[in-house]
Amino acid sequence: MGEQQAMGEQQSGDREHVGADGLVVTRDGVVVTVTIDRPEVMNAMTGTMFAEFGRIFRDLNADDTVRCVVVTGAGGNFCSGADVGAQSKRATGAVEARPALRNLRMIKASAQALHECQHPVVAKVRGIAVGAGLNLALGCDLVYASADARFSEIFARRGISLDFGGSWVLPRRIGLHRAKELALLAEVIDAAEADRIGLVNRVLPDDELDAHVDDVVARIVAGPPLALSMSKALLNHGVETSMSQALEAEAASQAANFGSEDPREAGRAWIEKRAPEFKGR
Fold first, then answer.
1. pLDDT at 281
2. pTM, whole model, 2 decimals?
3. Mean pLDDT comparison of 18-22, 99-103, 271-275, highest-scoring range
4. Please, which pLDDT band fits residue 150 given cuts at 50, 70 and 90?
5. Is 191 within 8 Å of 147 (Cβ atoms)?
6. Where are the domains of the chain?
7. Which of 88, 93, 130, 236 is the most buried if burial means most Cβ atoms within 10 Å?
């Protein structure tokens, strides 16, 4: 049975664990958690992991039974970016090297799969989120961090430029000049500073982070999945379109919404003074 088929057959309350190549996929009803699981290297990701991450998100995008995805890290850190040790071995010839462009195109495909996922994606960040790890978190729709989290666009320290979508998402998140400051200076900033400049949605005490993310996910799951998916797409594309194009896209999305049962269910729930039960169809 393929992973996507298995996901589609899960019922609310059931759990599924799929682990491969340093990534663990856990399903609980309509919520999928993707955990980066190499705590011995602060969850640094190998090329194989980046490829697998992209495959996972392409499968999730195609699975209409999913309502929300959470991305997190194991062992007290989110992700320390690409595995520098593996890169060093390739550079010295200790392991067979793939062409650089091929590797980077694979990383591009992985980042694109995350950005194009139709479902809301929530990053839960503890500890280190640097380099591609930071940009992976920023590729999610919402980012919640513990007070001990630390962030850096560390690429310049490694003699390289931004990757994993950082050049696109960072200025949209915090503005062009703050983005340049993070990229050019490669400083490590703490959670309070990340919160101040808008890099994250909220910072919480470590012992409150899980409960807060659980509450956010529950509210997303209770929402209308088709409408939330369309709102996500509208916002993602809105910064690249004219007002006229945005209004036309909104009209097309609303027409699709009204073709589903969810607006009628919202109306019935309001009249009957109860919480709506949205189906996304």
1. 83
2. 0.87
3. 271-275
4. very high
5. yes
6. 3-222, 225-272
7. 130
Cβ contact 163:104 at 8 Å: yes
> Are the C-beta atoms of residues 43 and 82 closer than 8 Å to each other?
no
Convert 94-124 to b/e letters by CB count within 10 Å (16 or more is b). eeeeeeeeebeebbebbbebbbebbbbbbbb
CATH number 1.10.12 is the correct assignment for the domain at 225-272: yes
pLDDT band, residue 240 (cuts 50/70/90): confident
**In contact, 96 and 239? CB cutoff 8 Å:** no
Side-by-side strand order, sheet with 189-190 = 128-130, 150-152, 189-190
Condensed to tens digits (0 to 9), the pLDDT of residues 57-79 reads: 999 999 999 999 999 999 999 99
Length of the chain: 281
CATH assignment of 3-222, given 1.10.10.60, 1.20.1440.230, 3.40.50.300, 3.90.226.10? Answer: 3.90.226.10
